[in-house]
Design goal:
Two copies of one chain form a homodimer. The first copy, chain A, is mostly helical and 247 residues long. Chain A has eleven helices and four strands. Chain A is 57% helix and 6% strand. In chain A, the strands form two sheets. Chain A has a two-stranded parallel ribbon. In chain A, β1, α2 and β2 form a beta-alpha-beta unit. At the A-B interface, α3 and α4 of A face α3 and α4 of B.
């Protein structure tokens, strides 16, 4: 840390710092940093929120939660700024079936395999006691279970079932995208936004399912969205979590 | 059947009948009825669809699925006919968080206990072979599992977990309804419609959780909705499934 931040200058300035890890897993680092560099730093929010609910939309003090709800809220509040919801109510209904499906089905099977493969690395360096202490701070029972499984490994029958659902999901997307450029009508909508958030990267992480031979429609759709200027700007400005494959 | 329908008259008329059980569990009765009364009857749709996806909205030939999506579609198409979606986008977002929560959380825990308590009765008269034949016709793997568990009984740890979630759900509703007449703003919205569909009846089936002492807010809200003319008309015209408690 001292190589990138002038901590002596911070300490010398005599300022008091309030650190909010926003529910992130880095919550434990702050006290250690404060100790080591004798900073007057208080962790104002010690809660680890593994549901990521801290990622809300704050619109002039109005807090909107849930990514799908946030997407539609932006359409409601800024209807003329680059609309991503169709005008035709029937196409809107089709769009909502797709975004709902992401939230209820597609997201969960891909996420569980992601937790299995990647998230275990975040906690493998902890001792059992440290891990239990961390889990005790997780407020949602379902997430406690998920952290435990990420550390211990998920049961094989659960992994098999989630992989089956991923196969169903990929076929559903390909059925549509082999015939059409986007999921609803002929234009880019929130249906594509919400599905892309899960599907992009599957050509690497699930290459046995998403590849040029089996799912040319999905690959062309991913490329089409990745080429959009807003998508390029988003990736250029986003940081990746320091995750890696399970070893 | 012969006590309520003049089957000789039907047979005598020489008509040909196409029976569509609409995915319902009654699919097997039709062939037996046709045999017994020598009717020229063809089951045109032999699929048992335990996901109830056959209950769609048909709007001049446009088929809309998913009850939450149907509700918003009706608002989009008939914006001035007794609107049940707020005008304020922020209240709409709050409404969607509630309807989404029904679909992703509240509905499932109550439904699983309902399957455990009630649905087993629908299949207990079947032999093992008949039951397997029925399950083989169910197209959705998740529903096959649900039918098997309804017949055999659900695992106790799963029932315990669903009851825990029902407790969480009831507290969430009561937290809001002890302070407000409806779930969003001060008016009846789709948030109430979708939650009422699950919560109404819990004062009987889950009286240990939903009762005058513990959840006066929920009880008052249920009574307020049950008193609405549209709600009264709906119940007056609806038939109940022939279900009953597990014995």
């Amino acid at each position: 840390l001292i190589n990138v931040v002038d901590l002596d200058a911070i300490k010398g300035a005599g300022i008091r710092i309030g650190a909010d890890p926003l529910g992130g897993a880095s919550v434990d680092y702050w006290a250690a940093i404060a100790d080591r560099w004798s900073l007057e730093l208080t962790v104002v929010n010690p809660l680890v929120d593994a549901t990521w609910r801290f990622m809300t939309l704050d619109h002039d003090g109005k807090i909107v939660t849930e990514s799908t709800v946030i997407c539609e809220y932006l359409e409601d509040v800024f209807p003329d700024a680059n609309p991503l919801r169709p005008k035709d109510p029937y196409l809107v209904a089709e769009m909502r079936v797709w975004t709902k499906w992401v939230d209820e089905y597609f997201c969960w099977c891909v996420s569980t395999i992601g937790w299995h493969r990647m998230v275990g690395n975040l906690v493998k360096h902890l001792s059992d006691a440290e891990f239990e202490e961390m889990v005790a701070r997780v407020p949602i029972p379902e997430q406690k279970v998920k952290w435990r499984r990420a550390r211990e490994g998920f049961p094989q029958d659960l992994l098999d079932e989630e992989m089956r659902k991923i196969g169903v999901s990929v076929r559903r997307l390909e059925d549509r995208l082999s015939q059409h450029p986007y999921l609803v009508g002929d234009t880019f909508t929130l249906a594509d936004v919400c599905n892309f958030a899960i599907a992009n990267g599957m050509q690497f992480g699930f290459a046995e399912l998403v590849n040029e031979k089996d799912t040319p429609g999905i690959l062309a759709w991913l490329a089409r969205i990745n080429a959009r200027p807003a998508c390029q700007a988003m990736f250029a400005n986003s940081k990746k979590e320091n995750l890696g494959p399970r070893k």
